[in-house]
Amino acid sequence: MTSTVTLRNMEPPDWPSVRRIYQEGIDTGQATFETQAPDWDSFDRSRLPGHRHVAASTYGQVLGWAAASPTSSRPAYAGVVEHSIYVTAEACGFGLGKALLNALINSTESAGIWTIQATVFPENGPSLRLHQTAGLARPGQCVIRIAPSPCRANSAASRSRSPKLRETFNTAAPAGRSAIALQ
Fold it and tell me: What CATH number did the domain enclosing 170 receive?
């Protein structure tokens, strides 16, 4: 049986599902040092509005999410963010993490963000595989190098670019949304 999943921007009504998935990840002990998912106001203040995405089922059930946070308030780091991707256990293994990472790459790239980084616990096999099979740097290093930093155009790091993810999505999705079929 095939089910369609739509990628779209996260909206405040998605929060209960996003929070549940976040807490599910926290409870594994392999995703973050956090012990409790935050309330909406804390999450909203700490994540960049243009870089929050959800994967939702045909019936509107949120199955996963991705978001980016600034790494620093210093102007030199304006193009650097840290990302999080969480997928509910029932939806793992169907490519949602890769699709959400791709959506995040696209939104940050179009906003001029040149580096996306992540901290991944060594016990978190699915996240390690997601980042490594996407051709990204080993976690603990700069995970995604999208474009040269305008601040240090001649540095060795800015010349080292990782390949971008490109996922082929169903073009029948509504404008601003992407759909993928899960087998």
Answer: 3.40.630.30
